[in-house]
Amino acid sequence: MADKSIEEKDYQKAVALLGREPRSPFIIKTRCGNGNPQTLVADPIFFEDNLWKPFPSFIWLVCPRLKALVADLEQQGFVKYFSQKLINDENFRNEYLIGQKEIADYRLRLAEEKFAKPLPQHIYDILKNTSIAGSHNVCGVKCLHAHLAHYLAFGNNPIGKEIIEKIGNCDKESNCDSENAGGKK
Ligand SMILES: [Zn+2]
Asked: N or C: more exposed end of the chain, with fewer CB within 10 A?
């Protein structure tokens, strides 16, 4: 898009949904049915206090409706449900692990492009070996928002897929505008 005012408006909307100025640049990766930003993909490393730092959970879920519904699922015990499913369901686990490896490799490539020389070892280790939720225990589910954001932005995350089947993706009828959006559609 050549129209800078639209880009600026989009940027401001995304920052408002995120609730803070991000530490690293980002792109709007997916949108809700009403056109608002739904997921943002940030640089997986950032510079702070004269140091490069890793940012493994580099995909943000910013739709207020999805954030509220996923928080409900977490309250209902779905972090534990998916942790158990990863232990008990071999196909689910294998699909999950393939997706985690793929996103970790992608994340590492992005960081290497940004850094333009060999990454410091501790950054390499974190970007190469943690889950999308930033956990060294890759099967530690930790945060459902991260898994849903991964699925919406890149696919290939069976936890995110199952979540969206439960709560429904955003469409034109969804109320995506406020934190009270909860409800269904
Ligand atoms: Zn939405």
From this structure: N
Residues whose CB is less than 8 angstroms from the CB of residue 175 and which lie 6 or more positions away in sequence, other chains included: 65, 181, 183, 185
Tell me the two tokens of residue 63: 């739709």
> Which DSSP string corresponds to 13-51?
HHHHHHTS--SS-EEEEEE-TTS-EEEEEE-SEEEETTE
Which residues lie across from 53 on neighbouring strands?
A: 46
In the reported structure, the alpha carbon of residue 98 is separated from the centroid of ligand 1 by a whole-number distance in angstroms of 27
Give the pLDDT confidence of 136-182 residue by residue, as tens digits: 999 889 899 999 999 999 999 999 999 999 999 999 999 998 665 55
| Residue (of 2, 138, 141) closest to 78 by Cα position | 141
Q: How far is the CA of 67 from the centre of ligand 1 (A)?
A: 9
In the reported structure, the alpha carbon of residue 177 is separated from the centroid of ligand 1 by a whole-number distance in angstroms of 8
Q: Which residues surround ligand 1, an ion (CB under 5 A)?
A: 32, 63, 65, 170, 176
- How far is the centre of ligand 1, averaged over its atoms, from the C-alpha of 157 (Å)? 19
